[in-house]
Amino acid sequence: MDYSATTPVDPRVAEKMIPYLCEKFGNPASNSHIYGWEAEKAVEEARSHVAALINADAREIVWTSGATEANNLAIKGAAQFYKTKGRHIITVKTEHKSVLDTFRELEREGFEATYLDPQENGLITLEQLEKAIRPDTILVSVMMVNNEIGVIQPVDEIAELCRSKGVIFHCDAAQAAGKMEIDLQKTKVDLMTLTAHKICGPKGIGALFVRRRPRIRLEAQMHGGGHERGMRSGTLATHQIVGMGEAYRIAREEMKEEVARIKVLAKRLADGLGQIEAVVFNGDMEHRIPHNLNVSFNYVEGESLMMAMKGLAVSSGSACTSASLEPSYVLRALGRSDELAHSSIRFTIGRFTTEKEVDFAIDLVKTQVAKLRELSPLWEM
Ligand code: PLP
User: Fold this and answer.
1) Residue 183: count of CB within 10 angstroms of its CB
2) Dist. CA 135 → ligand 1 center (Å)
3) Are 210 and 230 in contact (CB under 8 A)?
4) Do strands 112-116 and 168-172 pair parallel, antiparallel, or not at all (unpaired)?
5) Ligand 1 centroid to 174 CA: how many Å?
6) How far from the centroid of its chain's Cα atoms is residue 326's Cα?
7) Is the CB of 292 under 6 A from ligand 1?
8) How far apart are CA 378 and CA 372, in angstroms?
9) From ligand 1's centre to the CA of 70, what distance in Å?
10) For the purposes of burial, counting CB atoms within 10 Å of the CB of 260, is it exposed (0-12), middle (13-18) or buried (19 or more)?
């Protein structure tokens, strides 16, 4: 139940990737023989599948090693390219570390950053953003779906606002692609981050959508042979790219049914855990993807709960920060107390999660929370 950390590769994806390791091993940049042509064709087909899921043009897709690199390329690339227009950039305190740390790096380079506080439900408001935009603002970065609490930011409206102000809008959709509809013909996002491994594709491959009309320019972060129209040099990882293409093709075909199935499981999970006394669900309960349920168990210490539930793969905070004992910065930004942030567990479900697994999780959590509370001096119910 930790699908937001990563997912198993769909066997259909793995099958599609394998020939590109041994038989069809060519370099897509080799344009003088069949090996290269074959690899290039596969890369371009995958590019079309990725573009199709978000209703973009294949020429707007730039391959990267994942969402971390795509976020770095989008934010640093745009800020550095447009720095003569202004040096102010805006994001939100609940963004993924790959966005926040990139902003910190730009601050060291002399940019000025504003970090917006979300409301208690995890969402930002348009008024808040509008107030923060200044004449020298060049870039806004707001994620589509939050990785810890699953809430969906009002991206359509943010995009409209940014476009009307002439500010570039980057959106990290690592947790959104394949889980909700994205239509970039309608939504005026300029740069969008994508990754494969959150939707049953392989790890180590992602992409950045870079809008062509109006054309967005980026300063390259990886210099070399000029691959990907100069935006990201390096020999393309054909097998990974083929895997991402197939994962996105499947997502486009099956997303509707899959989300309907996951909604049923999510309701079962929320109903089951909701029966436990003194639980708090984190993040807006309406504007969210059903794949995520983030719950704080009052009067229980999160680490002890994690230890007591060894048979269950869940995470406390996001996978990237769960090695530290700091309370989740996302929950702290919503105004949760340290205790409540510490006692939170993120349950995330996906393609291969079963009803039986959901019931197992509910039973285990119920039993262990009750046991831990019995030991807690603060629990007097
Ligand atoms: N952005 C978000 C919202 C994420 O959830 C993740 C994954 O944890 C990333 C970026 C980083 O993705 P990747 O592992 O592809 O670098």
Assistant:
1) 11
2) 31
3) no
4) unpaired
5) 6
6) 21
7) no
8) 11
9) 9
10) exposed
Long-range contacts of 33-42 (CB under 8 A, 24+ apart): 39/236, 39/238, 42/238, 42/241, 42/242, 42/245
* 98 in contact with ligand 1, CB cutoff 6 A: yes
Q: How far apart are CA 286 and CA 291, in angstroms?
A: 13
Full-model pTM: 0.97
Kindly state the DSSP code that residue 7 receives in the 8-state scheme.
Answer: -
Ligand 1 pocket residue status of 179, Cβ below 6 Å: no
Contact criterion met (CB below 8 Å) for 138 and 167: yes
Phi, psi of 238 (to 5 degrees): -50, -50
Pocket test residue of 151, 198, 320, 329 for ligand 1, highest count of atoms within 8 A of CB? 198
Residue 320 known to be catalytic = yes
DSSP string, 34-88: HHHHHHHHHHHHHHHHHHHHTT--GGGEEEESSHHHHHHHHHHHHHHHTTTT--E
Residue having the nearest C-alpha atom to atom 12 of ligand 1: 67
Atom of ligand 1 nearest to the CA of 95: 3
The sign one gets for the Cα dihedral 163, 169, 171, 177 is positive
| Predicted local distance difference test score (pLDDT) of residue 314 | 94
**Cis (ω within 30 of 0) for the bond into 377?**
no
| Average pLDDT score over the chain | 95
Q: Does the beta carbon of 72 lie inside 6 Å of ligand 1?
A: no
Check residue 20 and give its pLDDT: 98
Burial class (CB in 10 A: 0-12, 13-18, 19+), 238: buried
Ligand 1 atom nearest to 68, measured from its CA: 16
Segment 141-152, tens digit of pLDDT: 999 999 999 999
Give the pLDDT confidence of 171-191 residue by residue, as tens digits.
999 999 999 999 999 999 999
The pLDDT confidence band at residue 318, using thresholds 50, 70 and 90, is very low
Query: What is the value of ipTM here, to two decimals?
Result: 0.99
Parallel/antiparallel/unpaired status of strands 206-210 and 112-116: unpaired
Residue showing tokens 């042509």:
37
